[in-house]
Design a protein that fits this description.
Helix content: 25-40%
Structural class: alpha+beta
Strand content: 15-25%
Number of strands: 16
Number of helices: 11
Shape: globular
Radius of gyration: 20 Å
Order of helices and strands: HHEEEEHEEHHHHHEEEHHEEEEEEEH
């Protein structure tokens, strides 16, 4: 569903696990022109990495945008943006960024903290009286910080997919209200006592979305647009309207393994789908370029006051967050020590049709890689994550 890869992406791999079959319609990989006379060697090196994600790993298409140490932003593509026609991946591709939405939601919550409207260590009950109750879950014992840091113990709402037959395609066109998601989660037993463990749960960010709406009196998508998207000039980033299933503007097609467990099964086109299953945890659409610009602004201190950014970057161990160990999770922002000696900050996201991985370093380098299908193995996931690290370290 709408995760960086912990349990839900493992569920996605289970319910859609097939051998990758990329059809003969995949076109030759294509690099966007490197602006301002960018060196051929850098472009070739990056292009080779993306080509491997198509030819070796098996993704239909890839788009990557990188901001180098020189401050220049470059975009490359590989594979096909439409397996039916063989059209290339557009260089200005919009994709569903799934759980990267959590960084945006967390930023809004921390802005409200800076404005004195929310307290990090206040119980959720203060802002949503009586809303978080059921299955041993109790908003009087869960703090805002614990929601942001995924230490609340609230279970995920995977049951909505399981009850639909266990297939992500089965819920692709279903519209969910936020309280549908929360009710499904609260029907499950509490995962653990708040504050005692870390475990990824989309429910935390559904609750945070409801909190933003209660405190501001406005829809969470509108607050994200007003506070982040518009000030940063992210022209290709938007919050889909209720019931909206298409992707606006230029975009590649997104794919999901068509027959779970059937070796050699083809990709199913799932570009049109309803992202409401993610809501404040995973609904946004963006481009790699916009997402990278947002991350650079966030870590660079343009969106939060120093005290709130410092709180966001106070991390705890996050076992199972992604294919590689060593990840730590802050308040909607994760970090990993990279092999090249720098700390990378980001999140990543998985949704029907798309997977995105992204990292930004403190010196301003960043890389965003989006592939146009959910991986069907941990090896596929590791290849995407490894590519992002290579691009940041090589930038």
């Amino acid at each position: 569903m709408f995760r960086r890869m912990s349990r839900t992406t493992a569920v996605a791999l289970t319910v859609s696990a097939v051998a990758v079959s990329v059809t003969s319609n995949v076109v030759a990989a294509k690099a966007a022109p490197a602006p301002d006379g960018a060196g051929h060697h850098a472009a070739t090196s990056t292009q080779e990495r993306l080509d491997r994600l198509v030819s070796r790993t098996g993704f239909p298409g890839v788009i990557a945008t990188v901001r180098g140490a020189d401050g220049k932003v470059r975009t490359w593509t590989a594979g096909s943006g439409d397996l039916a026609t063989g059209a290339p991946v557009p260089e200005d591709s919009r994709v569903r960024i799934a759980s990267n939405t959590k960084m945006f939601t967390a930023t809004v919550v921390l802005q409200l903290v800076g404005e004195g409207l929310v307290e990090l260590d206040a119980p959720v009950e203060r802002y949503l009286p009586g809303v978080v109750r059921g299955g041993g879950n109790d908003g009087r014992r869960i703090t805002v910080r614990q929601l942001l840091q995924q230490t609340s113990g609230l279970p995920d709402y995977d049951s909505l997919v399981i009850e639909a037959g266990g297939s992500l395609s089965a819920v692709a066109h279903t519209y969910f209200e936020p309280h549908d998601l929360l009710d499904a989660a609260l029907a499950e037993g509490r995962d653990f006592r708040p504050g005692t463990r870390w475990a990824y749960s989309n429910t935390n960010y559904v609750v945070l979305g409801l909190l933003v709406q209660r405190v501001t009196g406005r829809p969470v998508g509108e607050e994200i647009a007003h506070r982040i998207i518009e000030p940063l000039g992210l022209r290709d980033t938007y919050w889909p309207r209720a019931g909206e299933q298409r992707i606006r503007g230029s975009h590649p097609h997104g794919y999901l393994a068509a027959e779970p467990g059937a070796p050699g099964a083809p990709w199913e086109d799932i570009t049109r789908m309803d992202p409401s299953l993610g809501w404040a945890a995973g609904q946004l659409v963006s481009t790699p370029a916009d997402l990278g610009a947002f991350m650079g602004a966030l870590v660079g201190g343009e969106l939060l006051e120093p005290a709130q950014l410092d709180a966001m970057q106070q991390t705890v161990r996050a076992p199972g967050f992604d294919a590689e160990p060593g990840w730590r999770y802050g308040l909607g922002l994760a970090s990993q020590q990279l092999d090249c000696g720098v700390v990378g900050w980001g999140h990543g996201g998985d949704i029907q049709g798309f997977e995105t991985r992204n990292l930004v370093a403190s010196d301003g380098r960043w890389a965003v890689v989006a592939v146009t299908a959910l991986p069907t193995s941990m090896e596929m996931l590791a290849d995407v994550s490894g590519t992002v690290e290579d691009l940041v370290c090589g930038a």
